[in-house]
Amino acid sequence: MEQVAAAAIVDARGTVTGWSEGARQLTGYTAEEVVGRAAQDLLAEGVPPSAPTVVTGTVVVRHRDGHPLPLCLTAHPVIGPDGSPQGFVVTTAPSTGDADLVARAFQQAPIAMSVFDREQRYLRANDMAGGLLGFDADSLTGRYFPYSADDYDVNERRFDRCLRQVAETGRPVHYESHKRSASEAREHAWMVYVWPVHTAPDQVAAVAMAAVDSSEQYSARRRLVLLNEAATAIGTTLDVRRTAEELLEVVVPRFADFASVDLLDWVLDKDEPPRDHRAEIVLRRIAHRSVTEGIPEAAVVLGGTDSYGPCSPPLRALRESRAVLRRAGEPDFDHWVQERNSRPMGDPASRRGAHSLVTVPLRARGTTLGVAVFVRIHNPDPYAADDAALAEDLASRAAVSVDNARRFARERGTALALQHSLLPRGLSEQAALDVAHRYLPSGSQAGIGGDWFDVIPLSGGRVGLVVGDVVGHGIRSSATMGRLRTAVRTLADVDLPPDELLTHLDDLVAHLAAAEGGDEVGEMGATCLYAVYDPISRRLALAAAGHPPPAVREPDGGARLVTMSAGPPLGVGGLPFEETQLELPEGSLIALYTNGLIEGSDRDLDDGAVELCRALETPSDTLDDLCDKVVKSVLPDEPGDDVALLLARTRALGADQVATWDVPPDPAEVATTRQYAIEQLAEWGLAEVTFVTELVVSELVTNAIRYGGPPIQLRLIRDGSLICEVSDGSSTSPHLRRAHAFDEGGRGLLLVAQLTQRWGSRQTSEGKTIWAEQSLPA
């Protein structure tokens, strides 16, 4: 016993039976004064009863002179032959001031700390650990851990497993735990560290634990995760309503139990923001979402309007342009809930547990678009200041996407209106062709494209067919399309052949690009296909500028693509365009289209063209029905471009509708030619137009004989109107002029222009043709 600084033996009844010299020197008591007395009599403070295998702790002993003496005590049980406890061997050393400070630091640490023996019994716990469990820290000593928790839930079971694992393996463990303190409303996150206490390198004598409150870091991580998800999940489409739904899908249920988005009406109408600021603001509900099926908390139907009074949290958020946080018990919150409950919409019982809300304005680019409301009902954590900041971040992201969608919808609507105003609204009846068409604007985020088509009546009963596609999307492409469509009509009016018309159109695009100041002409490039069908010769002449070739289906054959030169796109310049001609039987079908019809992300143009030809062979009662079938079977599921489709079924003018005479270049033949025309009109039953036709034939034939050259030919064409054509070998085109009072001539063409619907001239391979068209009696 003398080898130990201080030692004593205490039997099973707590009586001192042995006392060392070191104990006498430490406490001042001799062996004769202590042996036989109860060990409890030597203590200045009581200790809780316990029966540990090994106990180490600080006790306060009364020194012989009366002053308290803190001692660091270790008690080792003495086991008898039969295994029953016979007493304790107690060894101790003076508790120095430093050791006392260490003990106090452990006890007062701001983190929860505990020490357990290998059987999960507390050896010591500090105040923080005791407070988390609802116990006094000293009362935990010797207590078996599972018995120390009032609610032995999943957190306690996990910790118990970790204690056993560390005691058995000697390896530390750390993990994150979430637990709500009985005295606090918000859930806390704890980083729990469990490690072994070794008395020898391979011997675990105890297990220590430290738990650090990481609630702030945990909340920050959750906010970052939510914001990162919002960055990718919100704004995937340029649709205002879908964007609002995406915001609510992100926040419910992780941030709110119920949430709604209300927008000002002008946002949905794609108007400019109003300037007036009324005391009461009316908004329209475009989305709401709840953790409860059926959304019973909603007091407004989707699409319905909601008015916010001056004291409501949403109106405060709108007026103050910041998030407004309210909790149950506050007048604004209680009044808002009562007002919701007074409405016939929704279930007031579902709102009864609402305890806090955050309302935040949806603002983008300095403009207020609406308000988002987040409510917690089942989630017991009330909203705090950091939640309001998170709500503002989420709303800000959503507001930018809503504003982008609004601007896109506005630009798309403007471009669509512009495009529809430029496209032909109704195609006039043509004797040469039956036509049907479809135009489908793109639904992609790129916006409206510059596709167009047209059917242009030409002289001689001929018809011009045009389809084109301007590079790019948006208002600029639509405006460029309008320019090109007007240019094509103007060039077609002077009866240019297809290749020459495209050459002039190519120059126009190059000039437009230069005027716009573009770095590349291709920025205003376009593709175009122009075709002219003559119902008398049944010939189709066509040329393309970078445009896909048309498909043709003859009455008794299959559909095929026309073999032709594609030519360069408009605006490239310097390259020729080639004309292709083919003769078509009456009843043939011509399909002109833009590449949006046959091009898709999962197929190339060749595959799309094959599908188009197959679809054109489908039996249909009318051209309109065939248009629908072609679009349905050929168009990709998600077209990324506008689609224009123009179908034309050819007709032919028979010999009984055309009369032709060769005219000798002799003024005396004018009367003979005039008589031929009168007789032909009588045969056609058109005696009512004989007078005008006689004047037109006389004037045009006289001019051809006087100013033109052979060969001279007169042709009358009867279809929807009566057309008089006089051809001669001269390329000099006539023009109207105002005759003076004493001029002997110069009034003929003016008379023709006044008596007919329209007149004009066109160049031919042999010279020119002057024509005049007049309407027929009903």
Please sum up the structure shown.
The chain has 778 residues and is an alpha+beta fold. Helix content is 32%, strand content 29%.
Can you tag this structure with a few keywords?
19 helices, 778 residues, alpha+beta, single chain, rod-shaped, six-stranded antiparallel β-sheet
Topology record:
Blueprint: E1 7-11, E2 16-19, H1 21-27, H2 31-34, E3 55-62, E4 68-79, E5 85-94, H3 97-108, E6 112-116, E7 122-125, H4 127-133, H5 154-169, E8 173-180, E9 187-200, E10 203-213, H6 215-233, H7 240-251, E11 258-263, H8 265-268, E12 281-290, E13 305-308, H9 313-320, E14 324-327, H10 331-341, H11 348-351, E15 356-364, E16 367-376, H12 385-422, E17 433-440, E18 449-457, E19 463-473, H13 475-493, H14 498-516, E20 526-534, E21 539-545, E22 551-553, E23 559-561, E24 580-583, E25 589-593, H15 605-616, H16 623-634, E26 643-650, E27 658-663, H17 669-684, H18 690-707, E28 712-718, E29 721-728, H19 748-755, E30 758-763, E31 768-775
Antiparallel strand pairs: 1-2, 1-5, 3-4, 4-5, 6-7, 6-10, 8-9, 9-10, 11-12, 11-16, 12-13, 14-15, 15-16, 17-26, 18-19, 19-20, 20-21, 21-24, 22-23, 22-25, 25-26, 27-28, 28-29, 29-31, 30-31
Description:
36% of the residues are buried. This protein is 32% helix and 29% strand. It has 19 helices and 31 strands. α7 (240-251) packs antiparallel against α12 (385-422). The longest helix is centred in the middle third of the chain and has 38 residues, at 385-422. It has 778 residues and is α+β, with helices and mostly antiparallel strands.
Q: Give the total of beta strands.
A: 31
Mean pLDDT: 84
The residue fraction in helices comes out at 25-40%
Strand content of the residues, in percent? Answer: 25-35%
Sheet with the most strands, sense and barrel status: 6 strands, antiparallel
Q: Supply Rg.
A: 49 Å
User: What spatial order of strands do you see in the largest sheet?
Assistant: 13-12-11-16-15-14
SS-based class: alpha+beta
Distance from first to last alpha carbon: 140 Å
Q: How many H/I helices? A: 19
Any low-confidence stretches, pLDDT <50, length ≥5? 739-745
Shape: rod-shaped
